[in-house]
Task: structure prediction
Amino acid sequence: MTPDPRALSELLDESQDLQADALRPTRESLEELVELTHEVPEEDPVESRAFHEAQREALARALGVTALGAVGGLALVGALASPAFATSSRDAQILQTAASIENLAVATYTTALTLDYIGGASANPVVAKFARTTRSQHAEHAAAFNAALRALRAPVQTKPDPAFVPVVDKAVKSLAGASAAAGTTAVVGLAIELENIAAETYVKDTTLTSSTSNRALFASIMGVEAQHVAVLLAVQALLGAGEPQLISLDPGTAAKLPAAAGKVGFPHPFYLTSSAAPASQGAVK
Result:
């Protein structure tokens, strides 16, 4: 069963429409963010200290015993949470962390697309087109966040999130010698993890930013990331069921889909934030 290219085009058009709708309020919100930040001459030292303490605790929970191990995690916590690492503006830190997550996503999709079973001749065309389109959207998100940082006269973030780089590197190394089926499943699983981190981070950022317009900024991009997660979860479910041929937009496949296909992309009624990156995690040193 081959994918219907017309149906695929319609789905990608819908994705691009959602992206355009997200970036439109994003640009407006970024402009207001710049204005609001420039109105505040300096931060309250007590509030700033409390903010950095909260970030240190969050970093310890996120990194101390997971991606880097206890010793390495605590060392990185100290570096990332130190005043020398963080910028003076909380909003700038949040934007830098968001940009670092987007940079990591771009790099990960770029690497995945070099694999024949993701971006090459043997790849499922739906998966390949999704990966290319999604990579482009992440690049646009990173550019938007960095544009705001330039306007704030804060350092732009061109590097990937340091806490998640080891996770991606480990996953990429594990692909060596993997079969096409196993490799595709692993790549999709990694993409779900990264997209979910982005979505959950932006959900949490809506509570950390300083104005209603800032909440709109992260909420709009979060919607795009949530769409990515939903699509990938559906793909993962079909791969796990041994039905890769159903990863197709041909209307004829609809009757063959398992009963859970309609809800697998939405496992929670509300987005969790347990995987959200701490606001200062990707701040520029």
User: Anything to note?
Assistant: The CA atoms of residues 58 and 278 lie 6 Å apart. The radius of gyration is 20 Å. Confidence is low (pLDDT under 50) at residues 1-8, 58-88.
